[in-house]
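URGENT: need a sanity check before tomorrow's submission.

F., can you look over the GroES-like protein record below? I want to be sure the sequence and structure line up before it goes out.
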Amino acid sequence: MLNSTMMRAVLWSGIPFNVTVGNYPRPTIQNSTDVIVRVTAAAICGSDLHLYRGTRTPPTGPTDPVPIGHEAMGYVAEVGEGVNFLSVGDFVVIPDRTDEGHLLMEPHSYTAYGSAALPGSQAEYVRVPYADNGLIPIETTNGTEPLIDYLFLSDIFPTAWTALDYSGFQSGDTVAIFGAGPVGQLAIHCAMLRGASKVYSIDSVPARLELAASQGAIPISFNTSDPVAQILAYEPNGVRRTVDCVGYEAVNSSMLPQENAVLQNMINSTSINGGLGVAGVYHVYEPEAYSMPLSLGAIWAKALKLSSGAVNPMTEAPRLADLIATGRARPSFIISANISIEDAPEYYARFEQHRETKVVIQFPMA
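Structure tokens as predicted:
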């Protein structure tokens, strides 16, 4: 059994632009299939900013404080008696979603971390239900191995990889990646690993475009001139694939909110018979209240294929873990700040202001 009844956690109370760090009840085993993980590192995700900004639907308003976050890794600290394949001391990555504990025969939504029912992972400890199928075990054979790379198996590395799959990407393709935040940067990384002939990175933040260029991407600043015209100047027939790593908080060239800005630019810059992959998050509650115009005629006339959706990290984790273990992939290059949990409120603000690329909260193991 764990000793103390309280832990430190990053807490969300439903107030925009406000997270706090405080004491929160340490999780305990509730069901025999649970595991408690002692967290060594957790990341702030762009999806956390939807909550932070108050743009996520449905809006919740002020609530009792609850731990936020869904990207973490650590060591198994306690195991329920019904867990068969995990032991205390195992090093694991906590994916952004939980297993449902039974076989589901039809499409369904998934349970995510960050609610009173399932508190988030920006905390010293996390309860993982149905842990045999809800964690990503990592074999560690070298004490000096850079384990931090595995943190990104929790969400954004599989999301970036799958975004390319959604677009129909194949080796040798040209690809334009809209958004150069953490997912966009890893989409560039994945495209390079998978043999893209040219990669274009579209954003407005100079530091992000510089990081994209350092990977070999061609930077396109959308607030200096029309990004579609810039892409077509390089690729007169359009790029073969386009990827949305932005979502519903897209802005236009005047930096004003325009939810369809990225998707429309993708349609206009993709070649005939090309593909569009959408990894950016869009509203799933009250969809009729968040409809937006798109050029369906252009999609039809150009015979474009579009695929989208949330990503299950468990699906791609084995392949991507192998890329990390062999040194081919190093997703930790996106980290711009390693911080203590006590500094989380300051770095949420910095991340929201595009002053950080990726923030990782490090927890002491002593």
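My own read: The chain has a mean pLDDT of 91. The chain has nine helices and 16 strands. If you see anything odd, call me.
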